Every structure is written in C-alpha cells, then in structure tokens.
Amino acid sequence: MSTPAPQLNVSDLSVEKYHSFSDATMDTLLESLEELLDGLGNPSYEVEYHSGVLTLLLGDNGTYVINKQPPNKQIWLSSPFSGPKRYDYSPDTDSWVYSRDGRSMGDLLNTELSAALRKTVELGLEKVSEQVED
After folding, report:
1. How far is it, in rounded angstroms, from Cα 130 to Cα 134?
2. pTM of the model
3. Is 56 inside a domain boundary?
4. What is the dihedral of CA 87, 90, 96, 97, to 10 degrees?
C-alpha cells in the first residue's frame, strides 16, 4: 500500500479578491478583538497587527497567531487550544473554511474564545464579501 499524495487546494480566487477578502477579514478581526479586549479590561490581554500577522495574547489562555498567506491564498491560524489550521476562502459559505473539517475560522474562534474568556464572543467573520470596502 502506498501513501496517498497530499491534497493541495488550488484556489480559484483571483489575487486581487484574495487580498480584498483577507484584508477585510483581518481588519474585522482586529476591530472586533480590540473592542472585546477593551471591554474585558485585563492588562495581560493584548492584540497586535503588523505586516499581515495578527497576534492575540491572552495571558494564561495562550497566544493566537493569525496571518495572511498570499502565495497559497489562505489565512493561517495557530491556536493554543486546537493547534495550526489553514483556511481557504469558500464562496459557498462566504467565509474562510478549514478543508479538513469544513469548519469556518469565525466559528472556531467564536467557540474557543467564548470558552477561554467565559463570555459569549461573536467576532463577525461571516459574509466576508460584504465586509470589503469599495
């Protein structure tokens, strides 16, 4: 028995649409996280965004790193709870989806952050195409 070849997702998304969708997602994510952390008032919590890399520091709850991957037209996420994942834009759901489990990045983050912060979290990462500024 041979090992199956790795599956590569080839995105039909144009480079321009990738950048507009991923930029809109990262901007929404940053804005939502800044608002969330301001409301919590915990000085050990912090969010930073530089050069396409968003870092969310949650003290004892660990660190998330979310970054754009233009060569693959993906957004990569590293979670202290669920590990690394690579998200592709799905036109069917208008969201960033992990191909191995079909779960959206927004759903994963809402669930994990709600559990970690003991507060309902809704980051608003659905309907990516509607977040793009013309």
Report:
1. 10
2. 0.88
3. yes
4. -60
Longest dimension (CA), the chain: 56
Residue 47 CB burial class (10 angstroms; 0-12, 13-18, ≥19) = buried
In this structure, what CATH number is given to the domain that contains residue 101? Answer: 3.30.920.10
CB atoms within 10 A of CB 77: 21
d(CA 128, CA 75): 13
- 1 lies in a domain? no
Count of domains forming the chain: 1
Residue given tokens 């070849």 in the structure block: 5
Give, in degrees to the nearest 5, the angle at Cα 35 between 83 and 41.
90
Determine, yes or no, domain membership for 68.
yes
Domain that includes residue 99, residue range: 15-126
- Give the rounded distance of the alpha carbon of 15 from its chain centre: 18
Instruction: Please tell me the distance from the alpha carbon of residue 109 to that of residue 121, in angstroms, as a whole number.
Output: 8
Question: 110-123 pLDDT, tens per residue?
Answer: 999 999 999 999 99
> Which tokens in the block code for residue 86?
């690579």
For residue 17, report the phi and psi dihedrals to the nearest 5 degrees.
Answer: -65, -40
